[in-house]
Design goal:
Radius of gyration: 17 Å
Strand content: 5-15%
Structural class: alpha/beta
Number of helices: 8
Shape: globular
Largest sheet: 6 strands, parallel
Helix content: 40-55%
CATH topology: Rossmann fold
Strand order of the largest sheet: 2-1-3-4-5-6
Distance between the termini: 29 Å
CATH superfamily: NAD(P)-binding Rossmann-like Domain
CATH architecture: 3-Layer(aba) Sandwich
């Protein structure tokens, strides 16, 4: 990361107090960006109006959206938990892009980075509802990214797994012997990613260095997943 790489750039980060929000806000500010950090979930459609008021003309948006993995076998999935996953992660992503893309198109440039998951790239048993919601995010990025590319707006996703963060991989889990054995068995690189590493990838996708990358769901999982499926 070059110091001052995003100097003078206006960046909006959603759900900034959760998942990858804190390290992304810190990294982008280190790069000189003027970051508007908006905490909390965006379940209410009207909350998007608040984003537009807080940061009316962002050069880049990091759509950081997260909910718990909701582990249940298929026969025990409740409608309420299914709806919650889509309300927290899928609908807000569409609404964010719908609200901000027209302004980016009018200005002739823009970056949108969605922080999603590698989980649907392989599938994880007992988390099918979560995988479905994250998969919907990824599918939206692929399709909408191609549409926006014609207007010089780049929409891409960081599809991560095995990244140290309090939402999914807190210290209380990571330090257990069972998890360490699972990590060694499933992740070829043999470790968790540091949150700053994921933030660096988001920064790259939000910078001018990624102008030729569109509609991509980039696996960031230490080899656990290596293709977009």
């Amino acid at each position: 990361m070059a110091a001052g790489e995003l100097e003078g750039r206006r960046v909006l980060v959603t759900q900034s107090d959760d998942y990858m929000g804190p390290p992304i806000v810190a990294r982008f500010r280190e790069a000189g960006a003027d970051v508007t950090a908006v905490p909390g979930r965006l379940v209410d459609a009207a909350a998007i109006d608040g984003l537009v008021e807080a940061c009316p003309e962002p050069d880049a948006i990091v759509a950081n959206l997260a909910a718990g993995p909701s582990p249940h076998v298929v026969a025990e999935i409740e409608d309420e938990e299914w709806d919650e996953l889509f309300d927290v992660m899928v609908r807000p992503l569409m609404r964010i892009v719908r609200a901000f893309a027209p302004g980016m198109i009018a200005r002739g440039a823009g970056k949108i980075v969605a922080m999603t998951s590698a989980a649907p790239l392989r599938g994880i048993p007992v988390t099918s509802a979560y995988c479905a919601a994250r998969g919907a995010q990824n599918a939206f990025v692929r399709a909408a990214g191609l549409e926006l590319a014609r207007e010089n707006v780049q929409l891409n996703a960081v599809a991560q797994n095995y990244v140290h963060n309090e939402a999914y991989y807190p210290d209380s889990l990571v330090e257990t012997e069972r998890f360490q054995k699972s990590l060694a068995r499933n992740v070829p690189i043999g470790r968790l990613a540091r949150p700053e590493e994921s933030a660096d990838l988001a920064l790259f996708l939000a910078s001018s260095r990624s102008d030729f990358i569109v509609g991509q769901v980039v696996p960031f999982a230490g080899g656990w997943a290596t293709t977009t499926g």
